[in-house]
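Quick question: what would this complex look like in 3D?
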Amino acid sequence: MADGAKGKALGSVLARVPKATFRAHIADGLRAAILNGDIEPGAQLVETALADQFGVSRGPLREAMRQLIDEGLLVAVPYTGTHVVGLSVDDVREIYSMRVTLEIFAFEQIWARRDQAFRQGLVARRDALTACIDAEDDAASIVAELQLHGFVYEATGHKLLIRTWDSIRGRLQLYWAAHHRAHGIRGPRRDGHDRYVEMALSDDFDALKSEITDHMARGGRQTEDFLRGREARAVQGS
Amino acid sequence: MADGAKGKALGSVLARVPKATFRAHIADGLRAAILNGDIEPGAQLVETALADQFGVSRGPLREAMRQLIDEGLLVAVPYTGTHVVGLSVDDVREIYSMRVTLEIFAFEQIWARRDQAFRQGLVARRDALTACIDAEDDAASIVAELQLHGFVYEATGHKLLIRTWDSIRGRLQLYWAAHHRAHGIRGPRRDGHDRYVEMALSDDFDALKSEITDHMARGGRQTEDFLRGREARAVQGS
DNA sequence: GCGGCTCACATTGTCAACAATCGACTGTCT
DNA sequence: AGACAGTCGATTGTTGACAATGTGAGCCGC
Protein backbone atom coordinates (compact mmCIF):
# COMPACT_ATOMS: atom_id res chain seq x y z
CA MET A 1 0.00 0.00 0.00
CA ALA A 2 2.93 2.26 0.61
CA ASP A 3 4.34 1.92 -2.86
CA GLY A 4 1.72 3.58 -4.99
CA ALA A 5 4.29 5.61 -6.90
CA LYS A 6 6.49 3.22 -8.80
CA GLY A 7 7.95 3.72 -12.23
CA LYS A 8 5.63 6.57 -13.12
CA ALA A 9 8.40 9.13 -13.05
CA LEU A 10 7.80 10.22 -16.61
CA GLY A 11 4.04 10.30 -16.46
CA SER A 12 4.07 12.33 -13.31
CA VAL A 13 6.54 14.83 -14.70
CA LEU A 14 4.76 15.50 -17.96
CA ALA A 15 1.23 16.77 -18.21
CA ARG A 16 0.95 17.56 -14.53
CA VAL A 17 -1.94 20.01 -14.76
CA PRO A 18 -4.22 18.76 -12.01
CA LYS A 19 -7.22 20.83 -12.97
CA ALA A 20 -6.31 23.53 -10.46
CA THR A 21 -7.89 23.00 -7.08
CA PHE A 22 -9.53 26.07 -5.66
CA ARG A 23 -7.55 26.12 -2.45
CA ALA A 24 -4.26 26.81 -4.21
CA HIS A 25 -5.80 29.60 -6.26
CA ILE A 26 -7.40 31.19 -3.25
CA ALA A 27 -4.22 31.00 -1.21
CA ASP A 28 -2.30 32.68 -4.03
CA GLY A 29 -4.94 35.36 -4.48
CA LEU A 30 -5.21 36.12 -0.81
CA ARG A 31 -1.45 36.17 -0.36
CA ALA A 32 -1.07 38.57 -3.27
CA ALA A 33 -3.77 40.84 -1.88
CA ILE A 34 -2.10 40.92 1.53
CA LEU A 35 1.43 41.41 0.23
CA ASN A 36 0.23 44.06 -2.21
CA GLY A 37 -1.28 45.95 0.65
CA ASP A 38 -4.83 45.71 -0.65
CA ILE A 39 -5.64 44.40 2.81
CA GLU A 40 -3.96 46.35 5.56
CA PRO A 41 -2.14 44.79 8.49
CA GLY A 42 -4.49 44.34 11.41
CA ALA A 43 -7.57 44.06 9.24
CA GLN A 44 -9.93 41.22 10.01
CA LEU A 45 -10.66 38.61 7.37
CA VAL A 46 -14.25 37.41 7.58
CA GLU A 47 -14.69 33.97 6.09
CA THR A 48 -18.15 34.42 4.66
CA ALA A 49 -17.27 37.69 2.98
CA LEU A 50 -14.08 36.33 1.45
CA ALA A 51 -15.82 33.16 0.34
CA ASP A 52 -18.39 35.24 -1.53
CA GLN A 53 -15.68 37.42 -2.99
CA PHE A 54 -13.78 34.42 -4.34
CA GLY A 55 -16.97 32.68 -5.38
CA VAL A 56 -16.32 29.55 -3.34
CA SER A 57 -17.55 27.91 -0.19
CA ARG A 58 -16.01 28.41 3.22
CA GLY A 59 -14.32 25.00 3.19
CA PRO A 60 -11.60 25.66 0.64
CA LEU A 61 -11.27 29.20 1.92
CA ARG A 62 -10.58 28.01 5.46
CA GLU A 63 -7.88 25.68 4.19
CA ALA A 64 -6.26 28.49 2.24
CA MET A 65 -6.33 30.65 5.34
CA ARG A 66 -4.82 27.85 7.40
CA GLN A 67 -1.98 27.80 4.91
CA LEU A 68 -1.41 31.54 5.21
CA ILE A 69 -1.50 31.23 8.98
CA ASP A 70 1.30 28.70 8.80
CA GLU A 71 3.18 31.06 6.52
CA GLY A 72 2.98 33.65 9.26
CA LEU A 73 0.86 36.13 7.31
CA LEU A 74 -2.34 35.68 9.30
CA VAL A 75 -3.09 35.06 12.93
CA ALA A 76 -6.29 33.43 14.15
CA VAL A 77 -8.09 33.43 17.48
CA PRO A 78 -10.63 30.59 17.80
CA TYR A 79 -14.27 31.60 17.49
CA THR A 80 -13.23 35.23 17.30
CA GLY A 81 -11.51 36.16 14.09
CA THR A 82 -8.54 36.02 11.78
CA HIS A 83 -6.40 39.08 11.16
CA VAL A 84 -3.56 40.11 8.90
CA VAL A 85 -0.44 40.06 11.03
CA GLY A 86 1.16 43.35 11.96
CA LEU A 87 4.90 43.43 12.30
CA SER A 88 6.52 45.03 15.32
CA VAL A 89 9.98 46.58 15.44
CA ASP A 90 11.35 43.41 16.99
CA ASP A 91 9.77 41.25 14.31
CA VAL A 92 11.47 43.18 11.52
CA ARG A 93 14.74 43.20 13.42
CA GLU A 94 14.47 39.41 13.65
CA ILE A 95 13.82 39.12 9.95
CA TYR A 96 16.92 41.10 9.06
CA SER A 97 19.18 39.27 11.51
CA MET A 98 17.94 35.97 10.14
CA ARG A 99 18.57 37.10 6.59
CA VAL A 100 22.20 37.84 7.35
CA THR A 101 22.73 34.32 8.61
CA LEU A 102 20.77 32.58 5.90
CA GLU A 103 22.26 34.53 3.05
CA ILE A 104 25.82 33.94 4.19
CA PHE A 105 24.95 30.27 4.54
CA ALA A 106 23.53 30.31 1.02
CA PHE A 107 26.77 31.70 -0.39
CA GLU A 108 28.78 29.14 1.56
CA GLN A 109 26.76 26.45 -0.15
CA ILE A 110 27.23 27.81 -3.63
CA TRP A 111 30.61 29.54 -3.38
CA ALA A 112 32.67 26.90 -5.16
CA ARG A 113 29.97 26.31 -7.78
CA ARG A 114 29.44 29.83 -9.05
CA ASP A 115 29.45 29.03 -12.75
CA GLN A 116 28.78 31.29 -15.70
CA ALA A 117 25.02 30.77 -15.52
CA PHE A 118 24.97 31.91 -11.92
CA ARG A 119 27.04 35.00 -12.64
CA GLN A 120 24.92 35.97 -15.59
CA GLY A 121 21.70 35.37 -13.70
CA LEU A 122 22.83 37.48 -10.79
CA VAL A 123 23.91 40.37 -13.01
CA ALA A 124 20.70 40.20 -15.00
CA ARG A 125 18.61 40.49 -11.85
CA ARG A 126 20.71 43.33 -10.52
CA ASP A 127 20.20 45.18 -13.81
CA ALA A 128 16.48 44.58 -13.62
CA LEU A 129 16.42 45.95 -10.10
CA THR A 130 18.51 48.94 -11.08
CA ALA A 131 16.11 49.71 -13.90
CA CYS A 132 13.16 49.65 -11.51
CA ILE A 133 14.93 51.94 -9.09
CA ASP A 134 15.91 54.40 -11.83
CA ALA A 135 12.33 54.38 -13.04
CA GLU A 136 11.26 55.06 -9.45
CA ASP A 137 8.79 52.22 -9.73
CA ASP A 138 8.72 51.15 -6.12
CA ALA A 139 6.31 48.25 -6.39
CA ALA A 140 8.35 46.71 -9.16
CA SER A 141 11.59 47.30 -7.31
CA ILE A 142 10.29 45.32 -4.34
CA VAL A 143 9.62 42.36 -6.58
CA ALA A 144 12.95 42.79 -8.34
CA GLU A 145 14.88 42.91 -5.09
CA LEU A 146 13.13 39.79 -3.82
CA GLN A 147 14.01 38.05 -7.06
CA LEU A 148 17.64 39.07 -6.82
CA HIS A 149 18.01 37.56 -3.38
CA GLY A 150 15.71 34.66 -4.19
CA PHE A 151 17.95 33.76 -7.10
CA VAL A 152 20.83 33.20 -4.70
CA TYR A 153 18.77 30.92 -2.53
CA GLU A 154 17.44 29.00 -5.51
CA ALA A 155 20.94 28.54 -6.87
CA THR A 156 21.97 26.61 -3.77
CA GLY A 157 19.48 23.88 -4.58
CA HIS A 158 19.10 23.52 -0.81
CA LYS A 159 15.40 22.78 -0.52
CA LEU A 160 15.18 23.35 3.20
CA LEU A 161 16.94 26.68 2.87
CA ILE A 162 14.64 27.73 0.04
CA ARG A 163 11.65 26.72 2.09
CA THR A 164 12.90 28.81 4.99
CA TRP A 165 13.54 31.79 2.73
CA ASP A 166 9.99 31.47 1.41
CA SER A 167 8.58 31.68 4.90
CA ILE A 168 10.65 34.77 5.65
CA ARG A 169 10.09 36.41 2.30
CA GLY A 170 6.37 36.68 2.95
CA ARG A 171 6.88 38.69 6.09
CA LEU A 172 9.58 40.80 4.51
CA GLN A 173 7.33 41.61 1.58
CA LEU A 174 4.53 42.44 4.00
CA TYR A 175 6.76 44.93 5.75
CA TRP A 176 8.09 46.46 2.54
CA ALA A 177 4.58 46.92 1.24
CA ALA A 178 3.54 48.72 4.42
CA HIS A 179 6.67 50.85 4.27
CA HIS A 180 6.00 51.70 0.67
CA ARG A 181 2.39 52.66 1.36
CA ALA A 182 3.43 54.95 4.17
CA HIS A 183 6.62 56.45 2.77
CA GLY A 184 6.56 56.06 -0.98
CA ILE A 185 9.97 55.60 -2.55
CA ARG A 186 12.31 54.05 -0.07
CA GLY A 187 15.32 55.99 -1.19
CA PRO A 188 18.32 55.25 -3.39
CA ARG A 189 19.67 51.77 -3.09
CA ARG A 190 21.59 51.45 -6.32
CA ASP A 191 25.04 51.58 -4.80
CA GLY A 192 24.20 49.02 -2.16
CA HIS A 193 23.13 46.39 -4.62
CA ASP A 194 26.00 47.11 -6.97
CA ARG A 195 28.43 46.44 -4.15
CA TYR A 196 26.50 43.37 -3.12
CA VAL A 197 26.67 41.77 -6.55
CA GLU A 198 30.28 42.81 -7.02
CA MET A 199 31.27 41.05 -3.81
CA ALA A 200 29.12 38.03 -4.63
CA LEU A 201 31.14 37.51 -7.81
CA SER A 202 34.51 38.24 -6.27
CA ASP A 203 36.82 35.70 -4.67
CA ASP A 204 36.86 37.31 -1.26
CA PHE A 205 34.30 35.50 0.86
CA ASP A 206 34.98 37.52 4.00
CA ALA A 207 34.38 40.74 2.11
CA LEU A 208 31.04 39.39 0.95
CA LYS A 209 30.15 38.50 4.51
CA SER A 210 30.85 42.04 5.64
CA GLU A 211 28.91 43.45 2.72
CA ILE A 212 25.87 41.31 3.53
CA THR A 213 26.02 42.29 7.18
CA ASP A 214 26.23 45.97 6.29
CA HIS A 215 23.58 45.63 3.59
CA MET A 216 21.12 44.23 6.09
CA ALA A 217 22.11 46.63 8.83
CA ARG A 218 21.27 49.51 6.51
CA GLY A 219 17.88 48.01 5.73
CA GLY A 220 17.29 47.30 9.39
CA ARG A 221 18.05 50.85 10.45
CA GLN A 222 15.71 52.25 7.82
CA THR A 223 13.14 49.90 9.27
CA GLU A 224 13.38 50.90 12.87
CA ASP A 225 13.12 54.57 12.08
CA PHE A 226 9.96 53.84 10.18
CA LEU A 227 8.31 51.52 12.67
CA ARG A 228 9.26 53.38 15.80
CA GLY A 229 7.31 56.35 14.52
CA ARG A 230 3.91 54.78 14.67
CA GLU A 231 2.49 52.84 17.55
CA ALA A 232 3.38 49.51 15.94
CA ARG A 233 0.32 48.00 17.56
CA ALA A 234 1.10 44.57 16.32
CA VAL A 235 -1.49 41.86 16.05
CA GLN A 236 1.20 39.56 17.27
CA GLY A 237 1.92 36.53 15.16
CA SER A 238 3.31 33.23 16.36
CA MET B 1 -12.46 48.22 11.99
CA ALA B 2 -8.87 47.32 12.44
CA ASP B 3 -8.73 48.11 16.12
CA GLY B 4 -10.79 45.38 17.65
CA ALA B 5 -8.09 44.48 20.15
CA LYS B 6 -7.48 47.45 22.40
CA GLY B 7 -6.55 47.40 26.03
CA LYS B 8 -7.50 43.78 26.53
CA ALA B 9 -3.93 42.70 27.11
CA LEU B 10 -4.69 41.33 30.55
CA GLY B 11 -7.92 39.61 29.70
CA SER B 12 -6.36 37.89 26.72
CA VAL B 13 -3.40 36.67 28.69
CA LEU B 14 -5.33 35.20 31.58
CA ALA B 15 -7.96 32.53 31.22
CA ARG B 16 -7.15 31.80 27.63
CA VAL B 17 -8.68 28.34 27.47
CA PRO B 18 -10.68 28.55 24.27
CA LYS B 19 -12.55 25.33 24.70
CA ALA B 20 -10.06 23.37 22.60
CA THR B 21 -10.98 23.26 18.96
CA PHE B 22 -10.77 19.84 17.39
CA ARG B 23 -8.34 20.79 14.69
CA ALA B 24 -5.55 21.57 17.11
CA HIS B 25 -6.08 18.31 18.95
CA ILE B 26 -6.11 16.30 15.74
CA ALA B 27 -2.99 17.98 14.44
CA ASP B 28 -1.17 17.20 17.67
CA GLY B 29 -2.35 13.61 17.70
CA LEU B 30 -1.46 13.00 14.09
CA ARG B 31 1.91 14.65 14.46
CA ALA B 32 2.70 12.52 17.49
CA ALA B 33 1.64 9.35 15.68
CA ILE B 34 3.87 10.19 12.73
CA LEU B 35 6.88 11.26 14.78
CA ASN B 36 6.48 8.26 17.04
CA GLY B 37 6.63 6.03 14.02
CA ASP B 38 3.17 4.59 14.51
CA ILE B 39 2.61 5.58 10.90
CA GLU B 40 5.55 4.71 8.68
CA PRO B 41 7.08 7.07 6.12
CA GLY B 42 5.45 6.56 2.75
CA ALA B 43 2.18 5.34 4.18
CA GLN B 44 -0.98 6.88 2.77
CA LEU B 45 -3.35 8.75 5.05
CA VAL B 46 -6.97 8.26 4.00
CA GLU B 47 -9.16 11.08 5.19
CA THR B 48 -12.31 9.07 5.84
CA ALA B 49 -10.46 6.43 7.84
CA LEU B 50 -8.61 8.98 9.94
CA ALA B 51 -11.77 11.00 10.47
CA ASP B 52 -13.50 7.91 11.87
CA GLN B 53 -10.48 7.08 13.98
CA PHE B 54 -10.45 10.53 15.56
CA GLY B 55 -14.22 10.62 15.77
CA VAL B 56 -14.62 13.82 13.80
CA SER B 57 -15.73 14.90 10.36
CA ARG B 58 -13.43 15.31 7.41
CA GLY B 59 -13.46 19.10 7.60
CA PRO B 60 -11.35 19.61 10.73
CA LEU B 61 -9.23 16.63 9.74
CA ARG B 62 -8.38 18.17 6.39
CA GLU B 63 -7.34 21.39 8.08
CA ALA B 64 -5.10 19.50 10.48
CA MET B 65 -3.53 17.68 7.55
CA ARG B 66 -3.02 20.96 5.73
CA GLN B 67 -1.12 22.15 8.76
CA LEU B 68 1.11 19.07 8.81
CA ILE B 69 1.71 19.48 5.09
CA ASP B 70 2.96 22.99 5.74
CA GLU B 71 5.16 21.61 8.50
CA GLY B 72 6.73 19.32 5.93
CA LEU B 73 5.57 16.07 7.49
CA LEU B 74 3.01 15.16 4.84
CA VAL B 75 2.87 15.56 1.09
CA ALA B 76 -0.37 15.65 -0.87
CA VAL B 77 -1.22 15.05 -4.52
CA PRO B 78 -4.60 16.49 -5.53
CA TYR B 79 -7.39 13.97 -5.97
CA THR B 80 -4.92 11.15 -5.36
CA GLY B 81 -3.74 10.92 -1.79
CA THR B 82 -1.69 12.24 1.09
CA HIS B 83 1.39 10.40 2.31
CA VAL B 84 3.82 10.64 5.17
CA VAL B 85 6.97 12.20 3.78
CA GLY B 86 10.01 9.97 3.35
CA LEU B 87 13.40 11.55 3.83
CA SER B 88 16.16 11.00 1.30
CA VAL B 89 19.88 11.14 1.98
CA ASP B 90 19.99 14.66 0.62
CA ASP B 91 17.10 15.74 2.79
CA VAL B 92 18.84 14.64 5.95
CA ARG B 93 22.10 16.17 4.80
CA GLU B 94 20.24 19.44 4.34
CA ILE B 95 18.77 19.23 7.80
CA TYR B 96 22.15 18.80 9.42
CA SER B 97 23.83 21.54 7.41
CA MET B 98 21.01 23.88 8.34
CA ARG B 99 21.31 22.98 11.98
CA VAL B 100 24.97 23.96 12.03
CA THR B 101 24.13 27.41 10.73
CA LEU B 102 21.09 27.97 12.89
CA GLU B 103 22.66 26.76 16.09
CA ILE B 104 25.74 28.91 15.68
CA PHE B 105 23.42 31.83 14.98
CA ALA B 106 21.48 30.98 18.13
CA PHE B 107 24.63 31.12 20.24
CA GLU B 108 25.64 34.39 18.61
CA GLN B 109 22.34 35.83 19.74
CA ILE B 110 22.62 34.64 23.30
CA TRP B 111 26.39 34.61 23.85
CA ALA B 112 26.65 37.78 25.88
CA ARG B 113 23.49 37.01 27.84
CA ARG B 114 24.33 33.54 29.15
CA ASP B 115 23.20 34.07 32.72
CA GLN B 116 22.99 31.62 35.57
CA ALA B 117 19.54 30.40 34.59
CA PHE B 118 20.75 29.55 31.13
CA ARG B 119 23.78 27.65 32.41
CA GLN B 120 21.74 25.69 34.90
CA GLY B 121 19.05 24.90 32.36
CA LEU B 122 21.58 23.66 29.85
CA VAL B 123 23.36 21.45 32.36
CA ALA B 124 20.07 20.05 33.64
CA ARG B 125 19.03 19.04 30.15
CA ARG B 126 22.39 17.51 29.42
CA ASP B 127 22.10 15.44 32.61
CA ALA B 128 18.61 14.33 31.62
CA LEU B 129 19.92 13.26 28.23
CA THR B 130 22.87 11.46 29.78
CA ALA B 131 20.52 9.55 32.05
CA CYS B 132 18.42 8.43 29.09
CA ILE B 133 21.50 7.29 27.21
CA ASP B 134 22.87 5.38 30.21
CA ALA B 135 19.49 3.73 30.65
CA GLU B 136 19.59 2.85 26.95
CA ASP B 137 16.10 4.29 26.57
CA ASP B 138 16.32 5.39 22.98
CA ALA B 139 12.86 6.90 22.61
CA ALA B 140 13.39 9.05 25.67
CA SER B 141 16.87 10.06 24.56
CA ILE B 142 15.48 11.40 21.31
CA VAL B 143 13.11 13.65 23.22
CA ALA B 144 15.84 14.64 25.65
CA GLU B 145 18.26 15.57 22.88
CA LEU B 146 15.61 17.64 21.13
CA GLN B 147 14.91 19.42 24.42
CA LEU B 148 18.59 20.14 24.96
CA HIS B 149 18.96 21.82 21.61
CA GLY B 150 15.49 23.35 21.80
CA PHE B 151 16.46 25.01 25.06
CA VAL B 152 19.21 26.91 23.29
CA TYR B 153 16.84 28.15 20.62
CA GLU B 154 14.21 29.14 23.17
CA ALA B 155 16.81 31.02 25.19
CA THR B 156 17.48 33.36 22.29
CA GLY B 157 13.92 34.66 22.42
CA HIS B 158 14.22 34.99 18.64
CA LYS B 159 10.71 34.04 17.56
CA LEU B 160 11.56 33.63 13.91
CA LEU B 161 14.51 31.41 14.76
CA ILE B 162 12.39 29.30 17.09
CA ARG B 163 9.75 28.98 14.41
CA THR B 164 12.37 27.81 11.95
CA TRP B 165 13.76 25.32 14.43
CA ASP B 166 10.26 23.96 14.97
CA SER B 167 9.86 23.32 11.27
CA ILE B 168 13.19 21.51 11.13
CA ARG B 169 12.71 19.62 14.37
CA GLY B 170 9.71 17.79 12.97
CA ARG B 171 11.71 16.37 10.09
CA LEU B 172 14.67 15.58 12.30
CA GLN B 173 12.45 13.71 14.73
CA LEU B 174 10.88 11.87 11.82
CA TYR B 175 14.30 10.70 10.68
CA TRP B 176 15.48 9.76 14.16
CA ALA B 177 12.33 7.74 14.72
CA ALA B 178 12.90 5.81 11.48
CA HIS B 179 16.54 5.30 12.39
CA HIS B 180 15.56 4.04 15.83
CA ARG B 181 12.99 1.63 14.43
CA ALA B 182 15.51 0.19 11.99
CA HIS B 183 18.66 0.17 14.12
CA GLY B 184 17.66 0.30 17.75
CA ILE B 185 20.11 2.16 19.97
CA ARG B 186 21.96 4.75 17.96
CA GLY B 187 25.21 4.27 19.77
CA PRO B 188 27.04 6.14 22.50
CA ARG B 189 26.78 9.90 22.33
CA ARG B 190 27.65 10.83 25.88
CA ASP B 191 31.01 12.31 25.12
CA GLY B 192 29.71 14.36 22.24
CA HIS B 193 27.11 16.12 24.29
CA ASP B 194 29.42 16.64 27.22
CA ARG B 195 31.84 18.45 24.96
CA TYR B 196 28.99 20.41 23.40
CA VAL B 197 27.74 21.74 26.72
CA GLU B 198 31.24 22.39 27.98
CA MET B 199 31.99 24.56 24.96
CA ALA B 200 28.61 26.27 25.19
CA LEU B 201 29.47 27.46 28.67
CA SER B 202 33.07 28.39 27.90
CA ASP B 203 34.29 31.77 26.70
CA ASP B 204 35.74 30.52 23.45
CA PHE B 205 33.15 31.11 20.76
CA ASP B 206 35.28 29.77 17.94
CA ALA B 207 35.80 26.51 19.83
CA LEU B 208 32.04 26.18 20.20
CA LYS B 209 31.61 26.78 16.48
CA SER B 210 34.03 23.98 15.70
CA GLU B 211 32.34 21.70 18.20
CA ILE B 212 28.91 22.30 16.69
CA THR B 213 30.23 21.67 13.21
CA ASP B 214 31.87 18.42 14.30
CA HIS B 215 28.84 17.41 16.34
CA MET B 216 26.58 17.72 13.33
CA ALA B 217 29.09 16.14 10.99
CA ARG B 218 29.15 13.05 13.18
CA GLY B 219 25.35 12.86 13.19
CA GLY B 220 25.30 13.43 9.47
CA ARG B 221 27.75 10.64 8.74
CA GLN B 222 25.78 8.22 10.89
CA THR B 223 22.80 9.26 8.82
CA GLU B 224 24.20 8.65 5.41
CA ASP B 225 25.43 5.19 6.31
CA PHE B 226 21.93 4.39 7.45
CA LEU B 227 20.00 5.85 4.60
CA ARG B 228 22.29 4.76 1.81
CA GLY B 229 21.61 1.16 2.77
CA ARG B 230 18.01 1.12 1.81
CA GLU B 231 16.54 2.46 -1.37
CA ALA B 232 15.42 5.67 0.26
CA ARG B 233 12.53 5.83 -2.15
CA ALA B 234 11.42 9.16 -0.93
CA VAL B 235 7.90 10.40 -1.31
CA GLN B 236 9.44 13.74 -2.02
CA GLY B 237 8.32 16.62 0.10
CA SER B 238 8.18 20.25 -0.80
C1' DG C 1 0.97 -11.78 -26.23
C1' DC C 2 0.37 -6.83 -26.12
C1' DG C 3 -1.16 -2.00 -26.48
C1' DG C 4 -5.05 0.84 -26.02
C1' DC C 5 -9.81 1.63 -24.26
C1' DT C 6 -13.75 1.54 -21.02
C1' DC C 7 -15.57 1.49 -16.83
C1' DA C 8 -16.21 1.04 -11.94
C1' DC C 9 -14.22 2.13 -7.54
C1' DA C 10 -11.66 4.63 -4.12
C1' DT C 11 -10.32 9.03 -2.71
C1' DT C 12 -10.21 13.75 -2.53
C1' DG C 13 -12.52 18.41 -3.53
C1' DT C 14 -16.58 21.26 -2.65
C1' DC C 15 -20.83 22.80 -0.83
C1' DA C 16 -24.70 24.48 2.16
C1' DA C 17 -26.78 23.93 6.64
C1' DC C 18 -26.32 23.51 11.69
C1' DA C 19 -24.01 24.15 16.30
C1' DA C 20 -20.85 26.43 19.52
C1' DT C 21 -18.63 30.40 21.09
C1' DC C 22 -17.37 35.20 21.78
C1' DG C 23 -18.14 40.32 22.34
C1' DA C 24 -21.06 43.98 23.00
C1' DC C 25 -25.38 45.87 24.41
C1' DT C 26 -29.03 46.58 27.61
C1' DG C 27 -31.68 46.58 31.43
C1' DT C 28 -31.86 45.90 36.28
C1' DC C 29 -30.41 45.90 40.98
C1' DT C 30 -27.74 47.98 44.72
C1' DA D 1 -23.95 56.24 39.26
C1' DG D 2 -21.71 51.80 39.01
C1' DA D 3 -21.59 46.90 38.70
C1' DC D 4 -23.52 42.75 37.13
C1' DA D 5 -26.34 39.21 34.69
C1' DG D 6 -28.88 38.02 30.63
C1' DT D 7 -29.51 38.38 25.81
C1' DC D 8 -28.61 39.17 20.97
C1' DG D 9 -25.95 39.42 16.82
C1' DA D 10 -21.85 38.19 14.43
C1' DT D 11 -18.32 34.94 13.49
C1' DT D 12 -16.10 30.77 13.54
C1' DG D 13 -16.25 25.53 14.21
C1' DT D 14 -18.34 21.23 12.61
C1' DT D 15 -21.02 18.10 9.97
C1' DG D 16 -22.90 15.05 6.29
C1' DA D 17 -24.01 14.82 1.50
C1' DC D 18 -22.72 15.55 -3.30
C1' DA D 19 -19.41 16.33 -7.28
C1' DA D 20 -14.92 15.85 -9.61
C1' DT D 21 -10.85 13.38 -10.36
C1' DG D 22 -7.21 9.78 -10.54
C1' DT D 23 -6.17 4.74 -10.56
C1' DG D 24 -6.30 0.21 -11.66
C1' DA D 25 -8.78 -3.93 -13.42
C1' DG D 26 -10.83 -6.05 -17.09
C1' DC D 27 -11.93 -6.28 -21.97
C1' DC D 28 -11.20 -5.89 -26.84
C1' DG D 29 -8.83 -5.63 -31.18
C1' DC D 30 -4.47 -6.42 -33.28
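Answer marked as accepted. The two ends of chain A are 37 Å apart (CA to CA).
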